[in-house]
Amino acid sequence: MVSGVNYSIDYLNISLIEYKSMSSGNFKQDLFTQFARVGKALSNGNRLELIEFLAQGERSVEELSKVAGLTVANTSQHLQQLRQAGLVNSRKDGLKVYYSISGGDVVALFGSLRAVAERHIADVEQLVNTYLTVKDDLEPVPAGELLERVRNDLVTVLDVRPPEEYAAGHLPGSINIPLKDLEAHLDDLNPEHEIIAYCRGPHCILAFDAVARLRDRGMNAHRLEDGYPEWELAGLPIEKAL
What we know:
The chain is an alpha/beta fold. It has 2 domains: about 100 residues, Arc Repressor Mutant, subunit A; about 100 residues, Oxidized Rhodanese, domain 1 (3-Layer(aba) Sandwich), CATH 3.40.250. A 4-stranded parallel β-sheet has the order 5-4-6-7, sandwiched between helices. The chain has a 3-stranded antiparallel β-sheet with strand order 1-3-2. Helix 9 links the parallel strand 4 and strand 5. The protein is globular, with a radius of gyration of 22 Å. The N terminus is likely disordered.
C-alpha cells in the first residue's frame, strides 16, 4: 500500500515537472494550446471521415480500415490521434480494439465544422453542386417534419447504410436496404408511400444515390435533411437491434 502511494506521488511529481517544462508561464496561452490539440486532430480528411463512421456506432480498427479504404496501420494511427485529443474512446476485446465517439458533443463539433465550411469555403459549395446537387436538387425533409409523417403513417423511411450501422442504431420503423441491394428489393417498398431515405449525414452520397434510383423507377422519394447521428443528437427517438 505504501509503495502504491509513493508511486502515485512520484507520478504526480513527474506530471508536474512535465507540465512546467511545457508551460509558457501564460495561463491563457497554455489553455489555447490545449484547445488547439482538438483542432490538430481534426485537421485531416481521413480522421474526419473516421469520425463520421464512428458516429454511426462502435467499430473495430479492422472494420474502420475496410470501410475507410485505409490500411489497418494507418487507420490505427489516425484513431490514436483522435483518442489523444479526447474525441474517441477505445476498448480492447481479446485481440481486437474497438473505438467509439466519446460524446454527442463530438458529433455536434463535427457538424459545426461542416456548416462553417459550407458557409465560408467556396470549394465546398462547388463540390456539393458538382457531385450531390446533380443527383437531387430538391429540398430535403427536416427531421421534425419526417417524425410527424411517420406518426401519421404517411411515409416509408429507408435506411441505406450497411446492416451493422443499422443494427447499432436507426430511426424508428425504418427499413434497412443497403444501397447495393436496393434494386433487388424495390418490391418491398410501398408504391403508394412517399419514401424518405437517409444515411450517415447530410453529405452522405448513399442517400443521394438511393433517391435518384427510386425516382428513376417512378417512385416519390426524398432525402432526410441530416443523417442518423444528427437525429440521435437532437434527442429524437431511435431503435437499436443490438
